[in-house]
Amino acid sequence: MCGRFSLRASAGAVQEAFALAEPPPLAPRYNIAPAQPVLTVRQGRMGAREAVLLLWGLVPSSAKHPALGARLINARAETCAVKPSFRAAFRHRRCLVPADGYYEWQRAAAGGGKPLRQPYHLRLTEGGPFGIGALWEHWQDPAGNELETVVLLTTAPNAVSAAIHDWMPLIVLPQHYERWLDPRIGKVEALADIMAPYPAEPMTAVAVGAYVNSARNEGPLCLEPPASPASSAPPRGVPASSPQQARLFDDTET
DNA sequence: CCAGACGTTGTT
DNA sequence: GTCTGG
DNA sequence: CCAGACGTTGTT
DNA sequence: GTCTGG
Predict the structure, then answer these.
(1) In this structure, what CATH number is given to the domain that contains residue A26?
(2) Closest nucleotide to the alpha carbon of A212, via C1'
(3) Does residue A120 fall inside a structural domain?
(4) Residue A70 exposed, middle or buried by CB count within 10 Å (0-12, 13-18, 19+)
(5) For the complex shown, is ipTM > 0.85?
């Protein structure tokens, strides 16, 4: 699952990572949430790559109204090529959403306690930006009002992500960007190899405080460690946290 | 044929 | 639009 | 994803 | 519980 992410990288770093002609409009973000505009990299038939802001939460082109509460924020990579709401977008409107980390909430272990959820920030240990595989869609009502929206794809978790949740965002390898973005390619057979879990080795998961829970909160406080660390009772499969920072990586199960 | 849904996660 | 259910 | 609201009439 | 807002 991927319902919240960060993008702190500079416009220059994102321009270079995604081979953009222009530096994208970009301010550091620590808490990007559904229903907000997200930077999206896509490609036209003539091959020009562009970065635009689209609303996160796909409104299918068939929707009568851009149902604000029923937007689709994630779609499964394994099935999006055949689902009616995503099929056309998969064939013609694949895109990448730049991020440099995403948040996952780990459900508390079974027991009497409150159903508190512990958020983690998952990112490349090296720290750079990456591209989340996504689809965009165009919607227009009879009056001519237009809306462009985007949905993030999910896939099976790697070892780092599996300790926290059952899914992870589809992270596309840089060597696959060109093929993924090419609108002339639409057959799932020509794209299936791209839709695999990103390897666990380059990734790190860090427990963070509840500040990130509210989509109204923004800024570096989103990455502060939890006040009462998850180390008090690390759930199964999760190594105990260090006092300073709960670095999460199980080297034994990659 | 027409009518109605079309998505995910999580929880029970 | 396109697929599923009846 | 999580947080927060969830209703009406009337008055300012 | 369920829907909307961010």
Answers:
(1) 3.90.1680.10
(2) D2
(3) no
(4) exposed
(5) no
